[in-house]
Amino acid sequence: MLAARMYGYKQPLVLEDVETPQISSTQVLVRVGGAGMCRSDVQLIDGYFEGAIKPKFPITPGHEIAGLVEAIGDDVPETAKLAIGDQVVVAAGWGDGICRQCRVGNEQICEHGSWPGFGPPGGYAEFVPVPYRQLIRVEKKLKWEELAPLTDAGVTPYRGIKKLRAAGVLGPDRVMAVFGASGLGSYAVQYAKLLSSGATVVVFARNQEKLAIAKERGADCIINTRDKSLNDLRNELVRLTGKAKLDAAIDCVGAVETIQTGFGLLATAGAFVSVGLVGNRIDIPLFPFTAGEFTYHGSFWANYSDLQEVLTLAQQGKIQHSIKRSRFQDINENLEMLRRGDIIGRAVIVFDVNAATPDHKVGRDLVSV
Amino acid sequence: MLAARMYGYKQPLVLEDVETPQISSTQVLVRVGGAGMCRSDVQLIDGYFEGAIKPKFPITPGHEIAGLVEAIGDDVPETAKLAIGDQVVVAAGWGDGICRQCRVGNEQICEHGSWPGFGPPGGYAEFVPVPYRQLIRVEKKLKWEELAPLTDAGVTPYRGIKKLRAAGVLGPDRVMAVFGASGLGSYAVQYAKLLSSGATVVVFARNQEKLAIAKERGADCIINTRDKSLNDLRNELVRLTGKAKLDAAIDCVGAVETIQTGFGLLATAGAFVSVGLVGNRIDIPLFPFTAGEFTYHGSFWANYSDLQEVLTLAQQGKIQHSIKRSRFQDINENLEMLRRGDIIGRAVIVFDVNAATPDHKVGRDLVSV
Amino acid sequence: MLAARMYGYKQPLVLEDVETPQISSTQVLVRVGGAGMCRSDVQLIDGYFEGAIKPKFPITPGHEIAGLVEAIGDDVPETAKLAIGDQVVVAAGWGDGICRQCRVGNEQICEHGSWPGFGPPGGYAEFVPVPYRQLIRVEKKLKWEELAPLTDAGVTPYRGIKKLRAAGVLGPDRVMAVFGASGLGSYAVQYAKLLSSGATVVVFARNQEKLAIAKERGADCIINTRDKSLNDLRNELVRLTGKAKLDAAIDCVGAVETIQTGFGLLATAGAFVSVGLVGNRIDIPLFPFTAGEFTYHGSFWANYSDLQEVLTLAQQGKIQHSIKRSRFQDINENLEMLRRGDIIGRAVIVFDVNAATPDHKVGRDLVSV
Amino acid sequence: MLAARMYGYKQPLVLEDVETPQISSTQVLVRVGGAGMCRSDVQLIDGYFEGAIKPKFPITPGHEIAGLVEAIGDDVPETAKLAIGDQVVVAAGWGDGICRQCRVGNEQICEHGSWPGFGPPGGYAEFVPVPYRQLIRVEKKLKWEELAPLTDAGVTPYRGIKKLRAAGVLGPDRVMAVFGASGLGSYAVQYAKLLSSGATVVVFARNQEKLAIAKERGADCIINTRDKSLNDLRNELVRLTGKAKLDAAIDCVGAVETIQTGFGLLATAGAFVSVGLVGNRIDIPLFPFTAGEFTYHGSFWANYSDLQEVLTLAQQGKIQHSIKRSRFQDINENLEMLRRGDIIGRAVIVFDVNAATPDHKVGRDLVSV
């Protein structure tokens, strides 16, 4: 099969022919239909995670995976209700199953866990082996480009916003901010509307085109942060919402500046959640944090249940996407565009799975866009 | 009456004779029995809060106040159950009563609120006027030096630890850390034992004498952090507790280093709460915060209910104190010692209230220690 | 002024001319614009609350009150931002201000509290005195008949549903039930949609006309319970939603049967909240309750913040009403219709406040409908 | 091997020689060291669960199991850290692993789950096969009679009290009640002290001998309920605690009367949790439940993490037991005593596992007591 593999840091992926993977008795072989391209793939290649993850090269990146069930291991129980040909998505945190986090379903933060594309082979390939417990069947078929991104870009802000909801800071007379309007942000604004029980949702970003999409996605107000001071932003917030402070904020960017701005605008007893990872530092003043009784949550990817919930929304037609369909051959060009921030919405590699034959021979004709 | 007043930043207080305050119809005049001396008094004098609080000089500091009811305003309702001569403590956050925070009882973080000693006259005086809603009657009389510090040093870590308890990270197989073993820390260790449902409590500090007291107060383990790296500390933690990570931590210091150490040792999904304010910056790495799904709470002072709970514990004899009784005349010397970190436990000015006459003339003979 | 007063149980109200009330220094005199008629007024007259409330007759019922500020007590602070002529609604739980419940804002369940219309004079009169802290100003003027019912029928289910939201059982792949489609139920269905983060909302009731309105108000499905067994209802639920169990339910009725049906359909770890009070007994089997780890919440009326949130929704045009405007003269006839369950939606007495003169003389010409 | 098996309702168990069970590749064979005898075994025999559980006879009861690892299936991973000879206890809810409840670790309430002793063979036998994920290794060896009961009697009230703790109603100035002082109750009182952050703990029961043990186990007060009215009990509560109401209560009995008494004494916004199942009905008045904003939790058995926490406490020596060691031969006599309520504390069958040989031949000499 064809796979795009990484042989070391700061090098292009190598698109090459490799053996189709074997599955163990509790795995399922998934024929990849769509593979989302994520900013963290660029970070992986650029070495951002070098301290945290130690992969053995070559590895196959790609952690946003949707596909068809191609083969099922002998010990996959019937209760899993999986059949050849089912459309499935892959929940991407694979834990050891016995630690404290796994026992409450948070396999994505298992200390002995792994994530496809960051160790186990990922979705930048025609097939990928997946533990059966990590698959979610899609009842009502959706397009590959609308499924794959849900497994990370489309579910990560969802989990983050659930933390804000649980913190009790969302409701009709509240103001909630979304920082960022790219991959994660364009989903975040939609969940902000769905989960906030009527809060006013304000999107902060620097790209006017992305902000315009955020408005279409349901933002009550948008604020372009480019070249504006905290005071400027506060004044604009007052003008648009009648309030000078944010009750809640999700940061889909993760730059030092977005974190500073977010806390700088946060109301007493407000809550802030970080999902974005563009920067690598939290650097904010202590006194307002303590005296304002702020709460700050880290939120990482999402667990199986979060993804199930997001898929329910998707199947109800409640999620809109900004997608750039891409060809597998163009993967390195697309990673480069992603690195430069030039992609509006999400780039998704779409495979022509209909051409696939049941005997594991793989059609090489990739989709053109 | 005698009062110690502040006429400007970075100057000693002036101990002088001023008029005994008049009370409004909903206030109570309290004859001060004990006034705790707090590191934040030093910070007030040194200008730490200059950006946040704009007092009109002269002001009378002193926010840890216990005393006797001397006079009661005409509109104080009977339901308040206050009588002349009652022993009372002062809850120190006085809110506007109608904002969102006040409506849930968190007057100490009211944006239009005030705190005695930081604007309204405080306890470095023989009398202080207090809104009746802010007084808690002590049923079972306690010593002044064991009451006054409860209103800040003795209640601030209590509120912080309640936030950790509410976060669901305390229990029998958990490790909880207290950073700091001074004023707040020596109380924190006791609440850690009382509120953690059986967690192993580890105190981290740099002063061996204070650590020894923490051990007496119930710490399961103590770790001296002086000249140790994060790795050293982790190894010591493993040796003492069998675990390499902290499930929960309260920082009673607030230095950049204690925050970094605390998060450096925090377990996945762990919770950290800041009550200490020695430093003025939070500066920690973003990726472990997000990927570890840490939760970080600011906790500020305490509200009326928190103080009621702490007083219940005190009246049950469950709180031990490390007190240095002081004379009012020596206030500037004591502030200087506090600035240098030379006071073990809490310094409390104790007034000789027994010499007081009922007609508001005040005995000038202060207690010797 | 004209007032409708109750002289004893099981008697019609007496519409009579009484003196306009004096206000204390912290009260506001409100000229009643609209007074909602509630099933609990009928219960009050019929003696349902005889064990719980001991009023001194005569009393003026009417606890759903909206009006205009007519006069302001001398000690009402400026921070309250109330001016003559302001449109206001009355939060109806008036607590002692110092108990545990009041300190967290739940004055409506203060053990020493009172409720206008159940002791203090209520809204079945041209004027009513109200403590200033219990008034909420309406920024964007609304009709009397759309304001008054919000203070009970329109806020009580809101608080109940907030308890379900806090219980963590609402979300995209959940089924939430509303039992009842009358006064409270027709609001509940709207909040269910607003607060449930995408749950499927099913309304259960016996009156097809009311069910049809519930559908218009946003119910995803409606189920007529008349003459149906639990099995019938479960089958209908499966047919409509694909699921056999409810994750959450709010009971706006409170009959023995609705409680039994609700718990009979509840899913493992489901949550149920009672706001309705038609019956007076909870009678359900123990084993499924325990083995299913159900949670059951009582929810009573609402507090100030709940009402503020509902008013925010109302001013954003997010709440629809089913109102029967009534004349003050017809109050006893309307109470009788309410007793028989013959009113669709909410009956609201609307006063012609425009005819009112500033000198407290009251126009007697009531609105015709 | 020897097993005590149930061939139908309302018959004695049959102690007979049966084949030692085979294990699957993911199971572990446990040589039973101790098997706790539970009131629910009597209920099982008497048909209480007939509607809920449909076992195929014969079944081997016994769900409180501690033992030694005798054999390990081939696919049990090394990460499970289990070795032949390890002392282990059995977590007793075995779920399907993929439903919503299992995904958050609550396998004991899985709708497709099972419990050893209620379907799968239980601990009234010399050996029992157990899925490896359900075993918890005991690091610091404990006596069989102190281990086995922890898996139900000793962990069920622990989970219940955690629900009260999470409800936010435990703390220094609170009163918490334990109803019942038998098997579950004598553990509940200890957890009440450990988890309640300083609440006053009151035990209500009818047996003075059991109450005396509760006092020894840490109860602050005990109240004998025999022949007392609700008013009598309230007066006694006031006399002992100074308060007339309970902030929290756990019912380890489950009789109609204990539930009525518990709610009859509950304070506004109080929380009640049912773990006992002696009766089969909840029958309480609706109005006080709703108007008092009570919260009522069902709590069923416990999950793996709960048991891990309880074992941590046990290994720290923080749990005291009231045990009656029994011989396997006397099982029917002991069940009869249990039915009559004549056992103080917990009866535990203790096997002489030291006589066991490694080759799966089983010593028949049971322990005498």
Number of strands of chain A: 16
SSE topology string of chain A: EEEHEEHEEHHEHEHEHEHEEHEHEHE
Mean pLDDT figure of chain A: 93
> CATH H-level name of the largest domain in chain A... which superfamily?
Medium-chain alcohol dehydrogenases, catalytic domain
Please, how many helices of chain A?
A: 11
User: What number of domains of chain A?
Assistant: 2
Estimated share of beta-strand residues of chain A: 15-25%
Residues in helices of chain A, as a percent range: 25-40%
Radius of gyration of chain A: 21 Å
CATH class of the largest domain in chain A: Alpha Beta
| Oligomeric description of these chains | homotetramer
Task: Give the end-to-end Cα distance of chain A, rounded to a whole number of Å.
Answer: 22 Å
Largest interface by residue count?
A: A-B, 37 and 37 residues
Question: Shape of chain A from CA axes?
Answer: globular
The structure class of chain A reads alpha/beta
What CATH architecture label of the largest domain in chain A applies? Alpha-Beta Complex
Stretches of chain A where pLDDT falls below 50 for ≥5 residues? 355-369
Largest sheet of chain A: 7 strands, mixed
The third-level CATH topology of the largest domain in chain A is Quinone Oxidoreductase, Chain A, domain 1
